[in-house]
Structures are given as structure tokens and as C-alpha cells.
Amino acid sequence: MIAIVALIFVVLSEYYGFLLVKQASMRFRGALSVLILYSYLVINAVLWIYFISYRYWGFRPAYQEIKSIFAVLFIALAAWKFVALCFLLTEDIYRIFRFSTKKFFSGSENNFSGTPMKRSEFIQKTAIVSASVPAGALIFGAINNAYNYQFRRVRLSFSHLPAAFDGFTIVQLSDIHSGSLTRKEPVLHAIEKINALHPDLIVFTGDLVNHVADEISEYAEIFSRLTAVHGVLSITGNHDYGDYVAWNSLKEKQANFQKLLQWHKDMGWHILLNENKLIEKDGSQLAVLGCENWSARLHFPRYGNLGKAMKGAEGAPFKILLSHDPSHWDAEVRPYFPDIDLTLSGHTHGFQFGIESRFIKWSPVQLAYKQWAGLYSEGSQYLYVNRGFGFIGYPGRVGILPEITIIELHRS
């Protein structure tokens, strides 16, 4: 049923997109009109070929820039066609309603009062202008915002935090998605800025790659430069298991996952697979639990075992959980592990699209996730959802910018 609705939606978008371009091209004469129309058809066809075939390109660093450009154009044009559909379909529904009512009621057809422009012409021009706004925003977001890293500082106070950890700083990275990255310079600059903070601990909360372990190969040397007093702790996210790749065999898939784990180690990261690490300072302890991917949404994998991750850390006076999917917090963490003080997650990317200001915080992703960006609390427990370092699908950001989080722990 969903596939049928999606197909109808695509057909209507294509039809009304073509209709709008055709009507607009008719304002020009001769060869220019034909050139505009056929250029649109060719570009649209090429982008659809990309969309259908991109999974078969495989992972090759040389292709990433090309794939990014095609992805931006495809998504921008899709947004343009969607807005065109909204306007022109509404106009057609109105015309059908008007035609039907004229069969039963008398009255002449009028244009807008006081303007020489016909109603259909007004709708057409409004559709072109309105459709260009989201399309332009998506192109701008890819050019300007994909690597526009925002350092967000969060200060949290706990009465039971050991005095030795008062002022303890944690830098959180999440969702690097190295298979989507195409520019090394801004990534290196971000790493240098992190190191300049001299954090006590750096944590990474999953999705190092999109699909294949070797996607990190081009950036491993850069991320291996991360330094902190207590090192870098990491976990896996849903994309790290290779579940979205048609492997030739289970053995091949497992080998890819083992290679991913080796990349973590080669970068000097300590990956936690349903286990924990006790950090000691001045005779006191702080436990960091690392849970493999666990989601309350069944279409995402559940490899995590929080009970197993807790073993050996039960006596720690303060506990931090690294868990990729924020839905884990409401589903398992809060009901069954009330002694986990702080959970750090990622996964949502804030949809890479939305509005964040002093007065408004909105993204389509909140339709699927109750906690999707920033800080949340229930009772004495906290959850922080990082907006993601990288991107996937759409190679950019609109409104929801990439994030590096600085968390300060204080004793109240």
C-alpha cells in the first residue's frame, strides 16, 4: 500500500513539475522555449538514473564528490516538484469543483478583481517562486552548511558526582558517516579545535560509516589525531553493521564488521561492545557504559545488551551510557536502569533539516522521535542527543547544523 501511494505521489510530482516548466517555457519564443523544456527533461532523466543506480556505484572515494553533487540536485529538484504539485494540484481540484458547481448554480467566471492577471497565471507564477525557495535552501545548505560545525556547550550538575570529577569535560561526536564526506580540510580543522579544548574524555556515539568499513580509510588518519586525558571511547550505530548492503555471504558481512572494529582500534579508539570502562581519578570512579545499537523502532537492529554492559560497573557512583539511538532511553534505560545518570545518543541528525532559534525548535524527525536533538531530562536522569557530525542521503544541512558537543560535569 505504501509503495502504491509513493508511486502515485512520484507520478503526480513528475507530471506537475513538467507541466509547470512547459507553461513557463511557453513565455519564451522559438528555440529558447524548446531548449528550456528539453534541458529540464534531460536533467530530470539523468538525476533519476542516478537515483536508481547509486547503490550499485559501490564505495569509491573518487565517486563521492560526484555522488554528492547528484544527490543535492536530485533532492533540490524533488523539493521543487513537490511544491509545484501542491500549488497546481490545488488549482486543478478547485477547477473541478468550480466546473461541478456550475452545473447546479448560475454565475459567471471571474478573474481576480482589480488585476489584469488571470487566476491560473497567478498560481503558476506563485508556484515557480515558492518552489524555488526550498530548492535554493537545499542547494545553499549543501554548499555552506555541510561542514559548518557548531560547538554546543552543555553544563550539567549532579549532587552525587564524585568531587574528583567536578569540572570533568566530555566532547561528544556522533554520526560521522565517513562514506559521505568529501572535504578533508574542514574535518581536520574541527579535530584541531577539539584538541585545543583539552577535554578529559572524547566519546563517539555510533555510525562511523554508511555501509562499508573501508569508507573510513580516507579519514582515519585525521580522526586518529583526537586526544583527550582519558582517551576516546566509541560505540557502534545501526549503519556500522553493514545491514543495508547485499553481501555475498554472512561470512563476508561479519568480516566487514570485524574490519570496522579494527579501524576503531587503529585510530586509537577504545570501542565498547556491550561493556564498560571505569575511569579513575584521585581515588574516585566514573563508569562509561557502551551499548551496541538498540532501538525501540523495530526496523532498526537490536544488538545492544544493556544488562551485559552494566556488569562490573554496578558500584560506580556515577554512570554515563553511550547508546546510539535515543529511543533506547525511554524504552529501556529509564524504566530498568534508573542509576544511569547521563545517556549520550545521536542517530537522528535532527533530520538535517528544520528550524532552531530561541523561540522555535522544529524538525520533521520529531514525528518519529520524541527526543531528537539537544538535552532532555526525566527526574534525575539526562539524555543528550547530538545532531551529528556528518550527513547521509542529503549531503548538507538546512537549519539543523552539524554538531560537536562539549559536556561539563559539575558537582552541585
Characterize this entry briefly.
The longest helix is centred in the N-terminal third of the chain and has 42 residues. About 1% of the residues have low confidence. This protein is 40% helix and 18% strand.
Write the layout of secondary structure elements.
Elements: H1 2-25, H2 30-53, H3 61-102, H4 119-145, E1 150-158, E2 168-173, H5 184-196, E3 201-205, H6 220-223, E4 232-235, H7 250-266, E5 269-271, E6 275-281, E7 284-291, H8 306-310, E8 319-323, H9 327-336, E9 342-345, E10 355-356, E11 361-362, E12 374-378, E13 381-385, E14 403-411
Parallel strand pairs: 1-14, 2-3, 3-4, 4-5, 7-8, 8-9, 9-13
Antiparallel strand pairs: 2-14, 6-7, 10-11, 12-13
